[in-house]
């Protein structure tokens, strides 16, 4: 019996010795995110309950509502990514392509909005599990897979298990990934970057078909993961790495890229078309330079709380998201050691080059401003601070190299480590002085000393003590390394927990309230919130409520400009905020045409033509008595250009129930003074159907955003969709009783679907008929 137990113990010990890095990278996220196993959701829902209405009207029993009551500065998961994903997956489960979002902006493309990431391969979990479970899985997988793939890449560089684990931990738990963890689209791009580099290295050495197909899958996943800017960075890194380090296999990489491009066309083509139609292509986009990191802000790589912390409500350093890329003090120290050795190691020089390149791209300088002023398409519409995600990747690799040299070359590296530590303190001092030069207050200085310098000194003291003990051989090597790893891991988790440990009770995720129940009951018409803090943008999507406002990185430019003109009550097309559309003035006539029935406000309206019908919670509710239906017949039209049309539409004498403004004459003759009837038969996600009766030809106006992807059919025969009343839709209906159906199916999606389907079919044929194609045609040269 004792022998059996002893044998089992030895076997377990051997397994742990062999696989301890993988176990740590796998189990640590599971332990850290343990509340998900208690029914909680990895989602910053506390903000919805504690800061916004109508959630704020709920009983404030935080123990029942949210795991975390901390303030969350950054509402994108709540106002964008979760709602988009929710309605998109809902459509897919019903067998529909998620092409159109009918609830926001009076209708807007959904799949073409790449940040919805509805074709991300990891979305398979949404088809296997309920939405909340799949959401949690996808967030935890970001940490698990980034760590594991970085670990295996570093092992491929012949680093020891411990050094590879060190780099994998930094890449998985760095502040940048933690900051965007709930958004997912950025993290899901970063997952596949180290795997792609690893596969390129393997392809460069071996002729195994499996590596090629895995590379195709990895690059395709990068294309489909959702965040266009990070995707572009990742693809550039892969391309340059192959060009510099894997030249003999460059053709293989190009082939993999072409295949991936073909597979991803169903997403890429609609997205490119949407960008071309969107506000991102406009010359008036926001100031890119305001999103550059200041040199002094790099101090947060060493002292993450130098500028305070939102959790303590003492933040004074600008936008939090663009600067938080903390990799740990020990991580930086060993990265500096790695930089010293990289100069003598050809394989790692690429990562030093990459680090310098993206720092230049991120930090404000004359060179950076020159780069972003270049007439390169979309360059002036990116957010430069997103480059920090690419800085973290080479830092993780260089830090792993640094601790590798620390382990293997003790005496020489001891001096280098000491120099790195001194360099770190000098850098910290210089950066602090730069930051203080811009933000000098007595309160800030006191806060910095208390929260940052003291913490940095303690970490450096502990590290120095461990280094001395290590070189004096006072304790076993494995114990010192374990203490170093524990110190680094604790440091990372401590600083990043604010972003990674935001949980919401699944029962209180977009909770039903008296106000939302009222709006759901009247959801055949649109509502409009007049306050930013009341039903914040896109929070209405889970309730399937229609409105004309929203928040989105991409939306149709003509629609956004037109609606903004309506809201400002000025007959000009311009756009102040390129990402969101909000209401500031009430134009009763236009609001009626837009099918807006209810107006919500947190305070009484001083002067209005709307009827006050009551107060629900903190919301005052007003009804528009003159609201027009979502679709209605008119018997008169006027042909105008854009300027004339806007002026006419802002004319208070215009009767939208009788006349429509078009840019071109209908193909059928419209008879005036005729009355018909319209009955809405079905209103789906990307289709709408009416039963129409009219004695004479008339025009059916639809208060849905116009896009050339909309197709109209009358009794099954295709007809033209006209752009009407600025940016909405109209169909000329002949006399008689007809069924009119509109269906959204853009050409870019059809072409992309054909290319992707053809590419997939060809791949299956190659695998089935020529399984040795790769080996025969792509050998080493």
TrEMBL record:
Record-linked InterPro entries: Uncharacterised_YfhO
Q: Which residues form a coiled coil?
A: none
Return the protein name: Bacterial membrane protein YfhO
One Pfam family here: YfhO
Keyword terms, alphabetized: Membrane, Transmembrane, Transmembrane helix
| TM stretches of this protein | 20-43, 124-152, 182-200, 209-228, 234-263, 323-343, 350-367, 416-440, 452-471, 751-769
Source organism (scientific name) = Candidatus Daviesbacteria bacterium GW2011_GWA2_40_9
